[in-house]
Amino acid sequence: MASANEQLLNKLVAHEIDVLGYGNALSKKVINILNKSDVTIFEKLRRILDEIPAGELNVKKLDKLMQTVFKSNSAAYSTAQNTIETELQDFTKQEVTYHKDMIEKVAPVQLKTVSPEQVFSAGMAQPFQGQLLSEFFSKLSQQKQTMINDAVRMGVIEGKTTNDIVKAIRGSRELDYKDGMLAITRRNADSVVLTAVGHFQNVAQEALYEANDDIIKGYRYTATLDTRTTELCASRDGNFYRIGSAKPAIPAHYRCRSRYVPVLKSFKELGLDAQEFNASTRASMDGQVPDKITYQEWLTNQSETRQDKVLGKQKAELFRSGQLTLDKFVSPTGHVYTLNELSKLNDLTLNND
Length: 353
Known about the structure:
With 353 residues, this protein is mainly alpha-helical.
């Protein structure tokens, strides 16, 4: 029988894949808000450019006209920020519950709970990648405004048509606007959202684990989800850090998929009489830090249902037949989960032994 700590590692890897799906869904929701706003922004921009003679740049007049564009842009990012904060508040609550239930599922312990509201506030007050969540959206908004402003000024000076200026900024519909200079703003928003989900997930875990240091003795750094992981995360994979000691921050970088796995104390470390429990429970509570596991090893030991969900049915069949090896991590980018769907997946993961 797998030890309690091995079971925790297995369940957290499975859970992390589901959380990646939720991050994808939240990112799409935020980007849809920005894309919808772009329709209004570029309608206004066209009207403004049509008022300015080609090659004749009056900076003061242009700046005044552009204020309506910038107001629409700021409003869109404000809406996006409110959306992600509301979502992450509910996500944080769900994460606190999941990790508590997960540990109690694999071990004969009862954990103290923590306030999801306080955990969320802590997440908002703690920077990730050097910035607060609110600061990210303010800077993303300013970045987009600057790019539009600079492109318009240059386009007017060079005598470009309204269509040429707008196309250079926004891109072409036939290429799904991925060829415009603003494509980078969508990629940056995507990175921020995915990194923010990892940040709040980590804050929730840490708060729960630190509150239960009488049961949890430390953290195991795991970077097993991505064989293309950064050298930084790869160098930390498997490292153990005791509760209360210094440890590397997670997320370690944008889009970081590394996570901390709790390591439970043994019966001896808990001060319990192991003889009061059945043989399988006694054997599972050994307090050992789980060995490293590759993503391919983990996926091989999962059910066909889980393999199909991660890879897609056709690729999963090739994987099971030995015709497909995971030379690189196959991210479930095609999967997007709402919070309700994530909650149902949490129940399945908890009860999948």
